[in-house]
Design goal:
heterodimer; A: about 525 residues; alpha+beta; FAD/NAD(P)-binding domain; D-Amino Acid Oxidase, Chain A, domain 2; Arc Repressor Mutant, subunit A; 3 domains; B: about 475 residues; alpha/beta; five-stranded parallel beta sheet; 12 helices; 29 strands
């Protein structure tokens, strides 16, 4: 090995697998891997899981007619969508099989619908049907009068993207996978002594702390918009290694299974043997009040035309209406600000599908980044011995996640010769939501836990019990945004105006923090800055 | 209550409480014995803020002693508790009180009458019920740690839930979503009730009263306030607050300006404002940037009517509160509304006045039963007058007058749409002028009212529409 890390502290831990990134993909891999006897760790740069691409997501389970036949995108989309209902049931995650409609606004574009249908059928999507305007109006009475036909995909659905990620992560943790949050990976080194990769990381919340590292037989790059950087860096290291390596040697060191140090040249699988460029494609969304009427019941796409891909109007798994996203390529992997122009764009284009959309009931707007790989294809699999990737995962990444997780876990298990984990329990109990229950059930909940009788978030009817439970699960929650993603406190029409002080109080009590230490999200996101009357 | 009746009842309610149903619930048929099995009150007041307290006291004084107040917070007084500035009660008590002092006066009145109340109690829903085809009252469900899940039968209900602030998301402000963006009332709670400062360098968007008060408050607590932007060409707050909170502290007010960008990944690092044109669109090139760590929003208040709308109460798109008649009765018999849940007020004195009327009318409804005001609709004979906002008026409360329930004087409150100088308020009934009142200045931020004598209304009706049913009372602004 040609490089040396400048590492000094001895707090190293050895793992079988180190996964970089706790978005929906990294978390799904972790969960599927926990079906095996494995020592695995997930390193996540943020303070919580689900803070990157997975967080600003439409939550749509795509049927799978969009991707080119024969691509990994097509394969994982269809397989992921098929797995989704069962996965959501096991993990107690809201999922609705609402079906989707691709709207066509001109008779002459109907062949476009047919092409999509053919493509879907080639990909193995079932129950695709082209419907006329009359049927369309039966399904969606408020649809635009200009829509003349649609492709109806009955298998499409919607899922809570936050809880899907949290569900995977918590279930992985429950089955023994370790999660290190606030662990931003700075470098990955090819195996040296003991045949282990070395992954070094820092804590962005505490820059004064020294660099840490973990050693692992296998590394998985699931770093979302940063996956390209890791891919290209490791590719360079492989090239440097191969330059210095002795001509191909058949030597095996033995004793470490397949995870041997590289004495000879490293062979990179052809699909991965190129530099990739991940473009941050920003998408802005608007979210409407769950009481705002009228709302669609299906996910409404617009048939892409020369004028653009169109935007979608969809219910969320919790009954809000969501519209978006835009598609703006930017340079900054942290650039998740919205712009007035994009917000305006979303409003206008949503009206094309659903003219009666009550835009006065918008409660928030947000933007997220899709990790758009320039060749528009997923990179999934073993790149070279011990190094695995799930890179360039953009839409339909959320849909594909269950299948990507299962497939990579199998591949890793094969490579490391892992045995099944006899104690694996794939079932996760979510936090019981007071608002979803009948009065009888609410009564019973309160009898068991009086904290269910204290409503903290008025808009969403979220109780103290739910928020407290969120802080005591296998992935700890310390932030307002973390609470919001798990139990929806602050997700409603007042956008935390009333509940923020109360949620902060609960977080400070349960986590033993001063109020000033309770953050919205990252380390610099303090909500309160100092006490009144305090010397500054 | 027997197990069976409880079961049936809750079974009935399931469709009502199911999530995200915006459909108004129709009255439920339910047997008399089921209702009798529930703990019952003549009157339940939802909300123990200034409106709820004044309404409960007034109903009590009018002879209704079986009253229960349900309050979601841990003390009575509502939002007044965090309004520690003075200026309250000039009309009601002829003296200047702080918010908590004003609230205390009414708490004392309630306590002197031993009016029961429950704190930390969230009302989950209000379901109108029929007995044998006739509206009987409402079943009110609530939860609290002390009492668990409760259901009551109430013959009458007064809605007094107050209002909430319009959040950033509803304003569609572009930019990042960091910590440090607060609605002004949330910041007020942090500073005044919890002793915590939400920011050091502050900008305020919106010149609503809470924003103005908070601009001054932040300065007094050692923060720096760089300015207040208001999208309209005039302030949304009371004139006295502009003077006492901004001018006295040299805080600039940028009229016809709005925030167009928020910067900072985790915490606010800066904001940009821009001037807006006549259509409230930002004018390119007029941007000004401010390095601040905090943005307070005071961009309007919205009556909190989720409970009302779930109950099936008809709401007004103009006020976002219930449509009420001159007795402040909503579209559901025996359900009254007052205070900021009905329409947003600028002075608590008017809230107290309005709530007193709601309490008295609820008492009258309870005493007279079917003969009372709102029940007139079912008699089919009672005449009504529609109150219509005319030129320059955005809404009126009430919007219906029931002539059989007309008090000796009727107050109609309203807001103007824009700033009017040297204009007159003109009230007509079926075209005949009832009154005309000159006002030097009127602004949307200050509620206006007219007081109409019963005889005047009746004589105008006699002249214009002695038998007819479609009478219209119109309030308009005439520029002189």
């Amino acid at each position: 090995m040609s490089e040396k890390s400048n590492f000094s502290t001895p707090s190293t831990t050895e793992y079988d697998v180190c996964i970089i990134g706790a978005g929906v993909v990294g978390s799904a891999i972790a969960r599927e891997l926990s079906r095996f006897k494995v020592r695995a760790v997930v390193l996540e740069r943020a303070e919580d899981v689900c803070t990157g691409t997975s967080k600003a997501n439409s939550g749509i389970v795509h049927a799978g007619f969009d991707a080119q036949p024969g691509t990994l995108m097509a394969k994982y989309n269809v397989a992921g969508a098929a797995r989704m209902p069962a996965v959501c049931k096991e993990l107690d995650v809201p999922y609705v099989n609402n079906g989707s409609l691709v709207l066509c606004f001109s008779e002459k574009d109907i062949p476009g619908l047919e092409r999509l249908k053919d493509q879907g059928e080639k990909n193995g999507v079932k129950e695709l049907e082209i419907i006329d305007a009359k049927k369309l109006r039966e399904l969606e009475p408020h649809i635009s009068p200009e829509a003349v036909a649609a492709l109806w995909a009955k298998t499409a659905g919607i899922v809570d993207p936050f809880l899907l990620t949290v569900g995977f992560a918590e279930n992985a943790a429950d089955n023994g996978v370790e999660f290190r949050l606030n662990a931003q990976v700075t470098d990955v080194f090819l195996p040296s002594e003991k045949g282990l990769f070395q992954v070094s990381y820092v804590n962005p919340a505490a820059p004064e702390e020294s660099e840490q590292r973990v050693l692992a037989k296998a590394v998985v790059n699931a770093a979302g918009v940063f996956s390209g950087t890791f891919h290209n860096t490791i590719l360079q290291k492989v090239a440097a290694h191969n330059k210095n390596a002795a001509p191909t040697s058949e030597n095996s060191t033995g004793g470490e299974g397949n995870a041997a140090p590289y004495e000879g040249a490293i062979t990179v699988a052809p699909a991965f043997a190129r530099d990739i460029e991940i473009v941050c494609r920003r998408g802005s969304y608007l979210l409407l009040d769950m009481n705002a009427e009228p709302k669609p019941t299906h996910t409404l796409f617009q048939l892409p035309t020369k004028l653009g891909k169109g935007i979608l109007v969809t219910p969320t798994a919790h009954g809000n209406t969501l519209i978006g996203p835009t598609a703006v390529d930017i340079d900054n992997p942290e650039g998740i600000e919205t712009s007035a122009a994009e917000i305006e764009d979303v409003k206008q284009k949503a009206g094309k599908s659903f003219p009666d959309i009550p835009l006065a009931s918008v409660i928030t707007s947000f933007a997220g980044l899709r990790a758009h790989e320039l060749q528009h294809e997923f990179l999934i699999g073993m790149m070279f011995n011990g190094f695995f990737e799930a890179a360039g995962i953009e839409s339909p990444g959320l849909t594909s996640a269950p299948a990507i997780g299962a497939s990579l876990a199998e591949e890793i298990a094969d490579y490391l010769e892992l045995q099944p984990n006899p104690n694996f329990d794939g079932h996760r109990d979510g936090i019981v939501r007071f608002a979803d229950k009948t009065p009888e059930e609410q009564r019973a909940l309160i009898e068991k836990d009086p904290d269910y009788a204290q409503i903290i978030c008025r808009c969403e009817t979220i109780t103290e019990a739910e928020i407290k439970q969120a802080t005591h699960r296998s992935i700890p929650v310390t932030t307002l945004d973390g609470v919001k993603r798990r139990v929806r406190a602050g997700m409603g029409r007042c956008q935390a105006g009333f509940c923020m002080p109360r949620v902060m109080e609960i977080l400070s009590q349960e986590n033993n923090l001063d109020l000033e230490q309770v953050k919205k999200s990252g380390p610099k996101s303090a909500v309160l800055l100092y006490k009144t009357k305090e010397e500054r | 209550m027997s197990e069976t009746s409880q079961k049936e009842m809750t079974g009935e309610k399931m469709s009502v409480t199911s999530v995200s149903s915006a459909n108004p619930t129709s009255a439920k048929a339910i047997s008399e014995s089921d209702i009798k099995a529930l703990p019952s009150h003549d009157l339940i007041v939802v909300g123990g803020g200034p409106a709820g307290l004044a309404a409960a006291v007034a109903a009590f004084d009018a002879g209704i002693t079986d009253v229960l107040i349900l309050e979601r917070d841990n003390e009575l007084g509502g939002i007044l508790n965090q309004c520690i500035h003075n200026g309250f009660g000039l009309h009601t008590f002829k003296e200047e009180l702080t918010g908590p002092e004003y609230a205390e006066r009414f708490e004392k009145l309630a306590e002197e009458r031993d009016i029961p109340y429950q704190l930390n109690t969230m009302t989950l829903d209000i379901v109108p019920v029929d007995i044998a085809g006739t509206h009987a009252g409402c079943i009110v469900s609530a939860v609290s740690k002390t009492h668990g899940y409760q259901q009551f039968f109430a013959k009458a209900v007064i809605l007094a839930m107050g209002c909430r602030e319009r959040p950033r998301g509803a304003l569609n402000i572009a930019g990042t979503r960091p910590a440090g963006v607060f609605s002004a009332g949330t910041a007020q709670r942090f500073v005044n009730l919890e002793g915590e400062m939400p920011g050091k360098k502050v900008f305020v968007l919106g010149s609503g009263d809470i924003g103005l008060i908070m601009a001054r408050r932040m300065v007094l607590e050692g923060a720096e306030v760089l300015g207040v932007a208001e999208i309209m060409p005039f302030s949304g707050g009371l004139k006295r607050n502009i003077v006492q909170c901004l001018n006295d502290y040299d805080i600039p007010l940028f009229l016809s300006h709005t925030v167009v960008d928020i910067r900072g990944k985790e915490r606010v690092e800066g904001i940009t404002i821009a001037e807006v044109d006549d259509h409230m669109k930002p004018i390119p090139g007029t941007e000004k940037s401010f390095d601040v760590d905090t943005l307070l929003l005071s961009c309007g208040l919205l009556p909190e009517n989720e409970l009302s709308s779930k109950a099936g109460v008809q709401l007004s798109p103009a006020t976002k509160g219930a449509v009420v008649d001159n007795t402040l009765q909503t579209s559901i018999p025996g359900v009254f509304a007052c205070g900021n849940v009905l329409h947003v007020h600028d002075l608590v004195d008017y809230v107290s006045q309005e709530a007193k009327l709601a309490g008295e009318c609820a008492a009258e409804y309870l005493e007279k039963g079917a003969g009372a005001a709102g029940a007139s609709d079912t008699e089919g004979e009672a005449r009504i007058v529609t109150v219509k906002p005319g030129n320059g008026v955005s809404y009126t409360v009430p919007s219906i007058l029931h002539l059989n329930a007309l008090a000796p004087t009727t107050i109609i409150r309203f807001r103007v749409r824009a700033v009017f100088k040297r204009a007159a308020i003109k009230v007509t009934l079926n075209g005949e002028e009832l009154m005309s009142k000159k006002r030097p200045v009127m602004a949307p931020g200050e509620m206006e009212q007219v007081i109409l004598a019963k005889e005047k209304i009746f004589s105008a009706l006699e002249n214009t529409n002695p038998q007819g049913s479609e009478s219209v009372l119109e309030i308009s602004i005439e520029q002189s």
